[in-house]
Amino acid sequence: MQPRTPLLCVLLSQVLLLTSAEDLDCTPGFQQKLFHIDQPAEFIKDQAILNLTFSDCKGNDKLRYEVSSPYFKVNDEGGLVALRNITAVGKTLFVHARTPHAEDMAELVIVGGKDIQGSMQDIFKFAGTSPVPRQKRSIVVSPILIPENQRQPFPRDVGKVVDSDRPEGSKFRLTGKGVDQEPKGIFRINENTGSVSVTRTLDRETIATYQLFVETTDVYGRTLEGPVPLEVIVIDQNDNRPIFREGPYVGHVMEGSPTGTTVMRMTAFDADDPATDNALLRYNIRQQTPDKPSPNMFYIDPEKGDIVTVVSPALLDRETLENPKYELIIEAQDMAGLDVGLTGTATATIMIDDKNDHSPKFTKKEFQATVEEGAVGVIVNLTVEDKDDPTTGAWRAAYTIINGNPGQSFEIHTNPQTNEGMLSVVKPLDYEISAFHTLLIKVENEDPLVPDVSYGPSSTATVHITVLDVNEGPVFYPDPMMVTRRENISVGSVLLTVNATDPDSLQHQTIRYAVYKDPAGWLNINPINGTVDTTAVLDRESPLVHNSVYTALFLAIDSGNPPATGTGTLLITLEDVNDNAPFIYPTVAEVCDDAKNLSVVILGASDKDLHPNTDPFKFEIHKQTVPDKVWKISKINNTHAMVSLLQNLNKANYHLPIMVTDSGKPPMTNITDLRVQVCSCKNSKVDCNAAEALHFSMTSVLLISLFSLACL
């Protein structure tokens, strides 16, 4: 078998040569340029497919044929034959014929063929461009095909431009990207012969095509004809290895999955021409680690890159595998996987995921626990075993008390680190009621079991709990204790007799009583019989009384060793007695000596007692008995009154006795001096200095008034 060449490795390095415009009897090129054949079941090696006829009108000296597929050739007789038996080659084949004088392209359409690599016409962009000479213009160009990665020597001729009607002395000029535009200087043209040459190595992955322009100019550089497009196509060489660019590659497959389950897809990238075998990749697994229980646990689709399982579900058991993680070295090879292809590798990590195919089991059927009565907290840890993955809900346990907990005294929770069941007492237990408890507990997983697995007898356990007797403190009943008494009852009055009992009924202990907290020091308790009496007068208005309720605490102490103590609360509701006189506010007022409004101040009254021992209050001016009164007080409402003047007074300080009386039975009265400052008020300024210098009592005011009347 002959060695394969790349699909696009056809070199078109010359242009068609024209005869003179007058010599049109012979047209260079193929006599027939388009052929149609039906796709056979198989192309047979060395069997002629069709015959091609090419002429350069010069005797076909040094005629060479190149075929777009490396699986075909044209023999010396012009017959197209296959180099080996092959079933599919695509939809189109191109045959390139070339001599030093002319070249042409023929197209073979395979009816019913599959487009596996694209057409050469698409690759070379020949659509709408005929490689045969056109008679309507004298400059004749054909696309130039140059393989990438050519070696020295440079420059080397790659094609030729022909102008059949070029005037004497005219020159060829080449322009465009790669000539006078960046990257400059890659191509040049012999201005006299039209030969096009390349000056350096080309890289198709950098620039795949160059669009140049050819024109003819006179000796002064003026364009005679053109510009005419000249396309340079860089032919791909297999110079790029496949690369896996999307890593890391991690796949997951559930244990017990059926054979053929797809795990993941791995695809590589090849920078070579995707229309050629240079970028046609094939995949295979080079190495599997670990290689147990089978060295071939997985298979990769050579074309798609899909990784699938190939072992039976029984071998894909996570609990029996040495390691649930597999690492595969995946190789991608171009040239459709042929030995001449370049390779690239990547690592695929495949995790065998757990499913809940093992139920949790208690490590023993019965557990024992001991707890003191009255105590709360964890009393025992229940241990289980589960073969599933500890990082999943298939392993995490959920516990339930299914029997023996009618009073909801117990709770069980899962320890997230150990998966143990932590059984706790949440309501204190009483030894005198029950010294033993038996609980039935079941365990399940957070995730449901697979259909063919169920919870068995090992998923339940019994816990026996022994309650230890402790010396409990006596208990007051009722608690709190409440009594109601009038304040100010006589010292030594009995309030109540407290009652405390010892829960340790089997120990037959005695109880003594003591005062624990008595903020005001008003109470005493008999240590033997628990009688509470007063040692001081109870005062409802004391700051230690809140909302008429006084709170005290008492202790009941048993005779145990060591003794235990219970605390009881006594709430004394104090009924009000009218034992507080009302008081007025404010006690200081100011008024201008020339005020037109003789109102002095509005007084309010308050009382520490409760209704009906408070308002309505009665306001009076004490001892104002002379006929010509100076002051007046008027009731506003039940709690307020207005003090006003009957005439203006001189600047001075006046003390007015105000008497206020509450509504209690019997009522209580309070007399308070109201200090009134009569000030000078001029030009919006208030001056009370003169008032400070004079101090008149109400009696002095009355005497002055009487003296004034006598002088009249």
What layout of secondary structure does this protein have?
Layout: E1 29-30, E2 34-38, E3 48-51, E4 54-55, E5 64-67, E6 72-74, E7 79-82, E8 92-98, E9 103-111, H1 120-124, E10 139-140, E11 144-147, E12 156-160, E13 162-163, E14 171-176, E15 187-189, E16 195-198, E17 209-217, E18 223-235, E19 249-254, E20 262-265, E21 282-289, E22 298-300, E23 306-309, E24 325-333, E25 343-353, E26 361-362, E27 366-372, E28 377-382, E29 384-385, E30 397-403, E31 410-414, E32 421-425, E33 436-445, E34 460-468, E35 475-476, E36 481-486, E37 494-497, E38 500-501, E39 511-517, E40 523-525, E41 531-534, E42 549-558, E43 565-575, E44 583-585, E45 588-592, E46 599-606, E47 618-621, E48 631-635, E49 640-645, E50 652-661, E51 669-682, E52 685-687, H2 689-693, E53 695-697, H3 698-711
Parallel strand pairs: 2-9, 11-18, 19-25, 27-34, 36-43, 45-51, 50-53
Antiparallel strand pairs: 1-4, 3-7, 5-8, 6-7, 8-9, 10-13, 12-16, 14-17, 15-16, 17-18, 20-23, 21-24, 22-23, 24-25, 26-29, 28-32, 30-33, 31-32, 33-34, 35-38, 37-41, 39-42, 40-41, 42-43, 44-46, 46-49, 47-50, 48-49, 50-51, 51-52
